[in-house]
Design a protein that fits this description.
This protein has 290 residues and is α+β, with helices and mostly antiparallel strands. The protein has three domains: 87 residues, 3-Layer(aba) Sandwich (Rossmann fold), CATH 3.40.50.20; 127 residues, D-amino Acid Aminotransferase, Chain A, domain 1 (2-Layer Sandwich), CATH 3.30.470; 62 residues, ATP-grasp fold, A domain (Dna Ligase, domain 1). It is built from nine helices and 16 strands. Helix 1 packs across helix 9 and helix 2 runs antiparallel to helix 3.
């Protein structure tokens, strides 16, 4: 098959890992930078050009769409879908997962456990803060990755000052309970085609509360409990994502979904777990193209 990876960085670990996995299975692999894709509708059909050359021979795509390129990147994915090309994640799935509130609404509809979360309303800030009973609060921007745009406020007073600043800047955000018993750790589970293929436990660095490896966190291999595995699989299904990373907090009330990443980085999870996630992704494509 001819498989294209939509990525802006051919030298990035995740892109190289997927290239190697596809080539090992004798597929023709190429990298297309979405920024150089030109989209058109000609004679009633979706057509796509890459660096002015018409793209007609792609069987499947692997989107690696960064958060800064969500709008145009998902348009490129949607265009390939209109051309009948299989994508490991749908354009709609990417959009739904990128907006945290939309994601939580979908997860709640499917009865998936989450930390208590409130959509911040300009007219109700102080009243909304009272509902957290003076406990620490996590403030999250609606769009953000790698722990960016996530703030821990230890007191309602600090939270209110932060909220008023964000509101003045026109930034949309949510308020979320801080799960203290998690102690700055979470679980990243990679789901491929309805199966957890790899998992790791991440721990924040000293002085931080965010466990993201990009922010200096550490990781170790972990065996998921039955409840954690079922939660990850159910969350991926709810968002309609064939491939994704599901972040889970271990709370006193059981596993809670913290976030879903439609373009999870592969370096940390592959090195920590020893699992070849890229090989699983290629297998997913092979099964669906058959």
């Amino acid at each position: 098959m001819n498989i294209a990876i939509l990525s802006r960085g051919e030298t990035l670990y995740s892109t190289k890992s997927l290239l190697n996995a596809g080539e090992a299975r004798n597929h023709t692999m190429e990298v297309l930078d979405p920024s150089y894709c030109n989209l058109a509708v000609e004679n009633g059909k979706a057509t796509l050009y890459f660096q002015n050359e018409k793209v007609e021979d792609i069987d499947a795509i692997i989107p690696r769409i960064g958060a800064s390129n969500t709008y145009f990147g998902t348009n490129v994915v949607r265009h390939f879908e209109a051309m009948g090309v299989f994508s490991i994640v749908s354009s709609e799935g990417i959009l739904k997962s990128r907006d945290k509130w939309t994601c939580f609404q979908i997860l709640a509809k499917n009865h998936i456990p989450l930390p208590r979360t409130v959509y911040a309303s300009f007219f109700e800030f102080e009243e909304q803060l009272k509902t957290f009973n003076g406990h620490p609060i996590i403030i999250k921007l609606l769009e953000g990755t790698h722990g960016e745009g996530v703030i821990l406020s230890e007191s309602p007073q600090n939270a209110l000052a932060t909220i008023e600043t964000l509101n003045a800047a026109g930034v949309k955000f949510i308020l979320q309970e801080y799960i203290e018993e998690a102690k700055g750790t979470d679980i990243r589970a990679i789901v491929v085609d309805g199966v957890v293929v790899a998992a790791m436990k991440r721990k924040c660095k000293i002085g931080d509360f965010r466990s993201n490896l990009h922010r200096g966190g550490s990781s170790e291999i972990i065996s998921l409990s039955t409840a954690e595995e079922k939660t990850a699989i159910k969350a991926a299904k709810a968002l309609g994502l064939g491939v994704c990373g599901v972040d889970i907090l271990q709370s006193k009330n059981g596993p809670l979904v913290l976030e879903i990443n439609s373009t999870p980085g592969l370096e940390g999870i592959e090195n920590t777990s020893g699992k070849n996630v890229s090989k699983s992704v290629i297998g997913y494509i092979e099964r669906n193209k058959k």
